[in-house]
């Protein structure tokens, strides 16, 4: 990523690297780059230097909008099975959950790679080269790319994926979490995968995080009794205590669980004999070994992140292909679709 978009104050293009404040003073800015010799020269040099990069980012935004638009249409048309215990649809529902989860991961990766005002500056530069954005596309992209005081995940609800569809996916994850990791019905969902999936999916229906205390109590009891640092992706890890802080039901439920666990640990420690020096030494050796392995893993991940991105794209395509095959299968031919 060009450093000019990261630190515009140190760039020679600082005067024309604007965030979304551009839309509030557009006439003044456009006059500067069209009527002022300095502004015109800066503008020409800027686009001569960054046009290729902006075109690449623009293609990514086009692909993102197409993905979101197609997924919203699919969710609207999707067959809704209210009987979550109907085993005929477990495979289909698991694929739907995966696609919703991966959609959220794509958005989180964009935020991780282009945090804060960086996205705004790049989008404004792209917008100035092509102002013929359809209204829906413009509004959706601005909602996703806008820098916000609240968590980035709060933009998920503005994507407006069918609420019934999202609620069904969350309920599916709630009630099928007890499947064994080798179960073919959940397509190999491990508990760690289920944790990350329900964490992401909940943001598409944030009312649960805000107000549904009983549902959050069940989710925390089932998934997050002991794990508060959740791996979402190879390069994404979240702290529930920080991410859920703005959400009343989620935060309150998690804090209650943490307090209960601390009390239990304190009571347990009072009855535990002191650790010996040899045991302490062995523990330090294990921690050192773990840190060494962790560093090796991190270096490997960084070296292969491009390959991982390609695999993620392939997974999304494969999952949609499987959904299409399931929809066309004999099992679903007699079903009615909304």
The helix/strand series, from N terminus to C terminus, equals HHHHHHHHHHEEHHHH
Estimate the global geometry from the Cα principal axes.
Answer: globular
> What is the strand tally?
2
Mean pLDDT figure: 82
Radius of gyration: 24 Å
Number of domains: 1
Q: Please state how the strands of the largest beta sheet are arranged side by side.
A: 1-2
The N- to C-terminal Cα distance equals 44 Å
Main sheet record? 2 strands, antiparallel
Give the count of helical stretches: 14
**Fraction in beta strands:** under 5%
Fraction of residues in H or I helices: 55-70%
Family: Belongs to the strumpellin family.
GO cellular component, one term: WASH complex
Describe, in short, the structure shown.
The chain has about 350 residues and is mainly α. It has 14 helices and two strands; from the N terminus they run H-H-H-H-H-H-H-H-H-H-E-E-H-H-H-H.
Task: Offer a few descriptive terms.
338 residues; mainly alpha; single chain; two-stranded antiparallel ribbon
Write up what this structure looks like:
Belongs to the strumpellin family. One of its GO terms (biological process) is endosome fission. InterPro entries: WASH_strumpellin. By secondary structure, the protein is mainly α. The chain has one domain (3-269, 309-326). The protein contains 14 helices and 2 strands. The protein has helices at 3-6, 26-35, 37-77, 90-113, 117-129, 135-145, 163-175, 191-202, 206-211, 213-223, 240-243, 248-270, 277-303, 305-327; strands at residues 229-233, 236-239. It has a two-stranded antiparallel sheet with strand order 1-2. Helix 3 (37-77) crosses helix 5 (117-129) and helix 4 (90-113) packs across helix 8. The chain is globular, with a radius of gyration of 24 Å.
